[in-house]
């Protein structure tokens, strides 16, 4: 059993014989009342999304996930194909299983596949990835209040804001948790 306040975004737990993935986590503390935890969760098998509120300290059924390293191979437009690096078995996943990961995934990249009783559930990617800038806006210095940024497109098709000194062809490090710029990588 796992206490609900230890759950974080991306965690998977079992409730009512269903597997749920945490999409959003919010800890709410009222003035004189006890704290409550509001979760936005998605049923892994059916894909339905619901919001649930739990009392602080309430316990949920924790599950033990199997972790395997898999290498991203290709997509056929409908499914994404991976190869288990230990057994060389092919694993096929729908885009829903790659939510939050797909925009940072490049060919031949090794990621962690989480499965439960042989059923693939989720893909975990490392905290930061290095990606190449394939297109960048021109840098225009002007009257700015905050740090000056410009829009770029990465090799995966992901668009983001970066500092003005980043140019087309540069390799940048991106935080996969929130999609933010971390640093420019020296080549």
Q: How would you explain this protein's 3D organization?
A:
The protein is mainly β. It has 3 domains: 2-62, Roll (SH3 type barrels); 66-124, Nucleic acid-binding proteins (OB fold (Dihydrolipoamide Acetyltransferase, E2P), Beta Barrel), CATH 2.40.50.140; 128-185, OB fold (Dihydrolipoamide Acetyltransferase, E2P), CATH 2.40.50. The chain is 0% helix and 53% strand. The protein has no helices and 16 strands. The chain has strands at residues 2-3, 12-15, 18-28, 36-43, 49-55, 59-62, 66-75, 80-84, 90-93, 110-116, 119-124, 128-136, 149-154, 159-163, 171-175, 180-185. The strands form 3 sheets. It has a 6-stranded antiparallel β-sheet, with no helix packed on it. Strand 4 (36-43) and strand 5 form a beta hairpin. The radius of gyration is 20 Å and the shape is flat. It starts with a strand and ends with a strand. The mean pLDDT is 91.
């Amino acid at each position: 059993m796992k206490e609900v306040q230890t759950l974080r975004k991306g965690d998977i737990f079992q409730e009512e014989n269903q597997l749920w993935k945490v999409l959003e986590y919010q800890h709410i503390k009222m003035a004189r009342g006890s704290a409550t935890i509001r979760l936005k969760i998605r049923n892994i098998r059916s894909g339905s999304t619901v919001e649930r509120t739990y009392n602080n300290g309430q316990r949920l059924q924790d599950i033990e996930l199997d972790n395997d390293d898999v290498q991203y191979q290709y997509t056929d437009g409908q499914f994404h194909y991976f190869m288990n690096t230990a057994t060389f078995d092919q694993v096929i996943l729908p885009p829903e299983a790659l939510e939050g990961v797909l925009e940072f995934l490049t060919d031949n990249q090794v990621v962690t596949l989480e499965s439960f009783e042989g059923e693939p559930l989720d893909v975990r990617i490392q905290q930061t990835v290095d990606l190449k800038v394939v297109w960048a806006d021109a840098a225009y210095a002007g009257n700015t209040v905050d740090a000056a940024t410009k829009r770029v497109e990465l090799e995966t098709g992901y668009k983001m804001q970066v500092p003005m000194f980043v140019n087309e062809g540069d390799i940048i490090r991106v935080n996969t948790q929130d999609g933010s710029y971390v640093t420019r990588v020296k080549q």
